[in-house]
Amino acid sequence: MHLRSLPMALFIVLVVCLSCLILFSLWNRRHAKGKLPPGPTPLPIIGNILQLDIKDIAKSLSILAKDYGPVFTVHFGMKPTVVLCGYEAVKEALIDRAEEFSGRGSYPVIDHIFQGLGMIVFWGNVLGLIRSPCDPTFLLSCVPCNVIVSVIFRNRFDYGDEKFHSLIHYFHENFRLVSTPWIQLYNFFPSLHYFPGSHNELFKNIANQKKFIMEKVKEHQESLDINNPQDFIDYFLIKMEKEKHNKQSDFTMDNLIITIWDLFSAGTETTSTTMKYGLLLLLKHPEVSAKVQEEIERVIGRDRSPCMQDRSRMPYTDAVLHEIQRYINLLPINLPHTVTQDVKFREYIFPKGTEIMVSLTSLLYDEKEFPNPQKFDPGHFLDESGNFKKSDHFMAFSAGKQALINYSLINIFINSVLFKPPRVITEK
């Protein structure tokens, strides 16, 4: 009986091996017309997954860049992705040739939910938060969230509103979940959708958020005055009505719901997390806090509200804000891009649709641009005279069109935290 089963076992092994070879051949043929940069040799089906630390992909890519240079290819599963590291390569792609590299890359765990609708997807990296006797997490989440709420829903929430609490809780949970190793694996192998895992919790959270948003949209539909729109939803609904016969229109109810979710998810958690770590860094470096407070007292004082014109007269505070974002490295890997056409990039050829991954860590922790990058030092953004020094390497979120998001984040950070009464940042 044992001898009879042996040929069958060998047959199964041969079938599996042959299937892998066929899949690998099809995989290579699919990208044969391009000339992608070299990289670590991938295995059939799983690609380079065994050579990457899914808990810290950014670090793995930095290590690979030392062997393969600033432009190399990594296979996430069967999908080849070109990785760009260092200022020169990133600038050449995202700034000098922005249109060619402006395609939106896939992020399977979110694509499954939103089916390509909305404006953005968020890929965060959760840093270990040091616990304080006074945890300002909730309040720091309320501030940016309510700013966005006022634009989208017209009215702000009371901080005691239970629905508001639930909304913010979901943002915290989503931010944590998308940073887990399981979600990273899901993005490499979307077929994991059929297995139990944290992706199901993420899907449930976002479904509840979409339900909340839909309730608000219905309220707006009932009270809509087309001659007197009050907020983002009103304007969107009016545009929907005007284009209701256009089957190609992007102004649909599904897109409205998901766009609102995009605005919330992109603005709330990133801003509040930056503020949390900003306060922790100021507490850890009281000498920096003292200089910030002195500048605020001298330029603004206590008898008036700050204005944007004050920013140019506060170089040290501006430098501190930039250094906080550089140091915490909130988004170590940029949102995935694709090339919109066949692109000749340096000595390589990227076929249309090739995914591009940008290591922002390689810019923010560049030792030539920021000496001793592991140290928190506002001097990284100050010249010898104490004036603010702009750095082209500062791409805390991205470059090109995405720079607007970064600029908005800095402005919210300024108005939400450092321009509050100075006692807050020095009180023990």
TrEMBL record:
Keyword Repeat: no
Keywords, in A-Z order: Endoplasmic reticulum, Heme, Iron, Membrane, Metal-binding, Microsome, Monooxygenase, Oxidoreductase, Transmembrane, Transmembrane helix
Membrane-protein topology: Peripheral membrane protein
GO molecular function: heme binding; iron ion binding; oxidoreductase activity, acting on paired donors, with incorporation or reduction of molecular oxygen, reduced flavin or flavoprotein as one donor, and incorporation of one atom of oxygen
TM helices/strands, residue ranges: 6-27
One BP term from GO: organic acid metabolic process
Taxonomic source organism: Spermophilus dauricus (Daurian ground squirrel)
Family the UniProt entry places it in: Belongs to the cytochrome P450 family.
Domain of life: Eukaryota
The name this protein goes by in its record: Cytochrome P450
InterPro entries: Cyt_P450, Cyt_P450_E_grp-I, Cyt_P450_sf, Cytochrome_P450_fam2
Subcellular location: Endoplasmic reticulum membrane; Microsome membrane
Cofactor: heme
GO cellular component: endoplasmic reticulum membrane
Pfam families: p450 (PF00067)
Chief localisation class: endoplasmic reticulum
Keyword Membrane: yes
Organism taxonomic ancestry: Eukaryota, Metazoa, Chordata, Craniata, Vertebrata
PANTHER family named in the record: CYTOCHROME P450 2C70 (PTHR24300:SF200), CYTOCHROME P450 508A4-RELATED (PTHR24300)
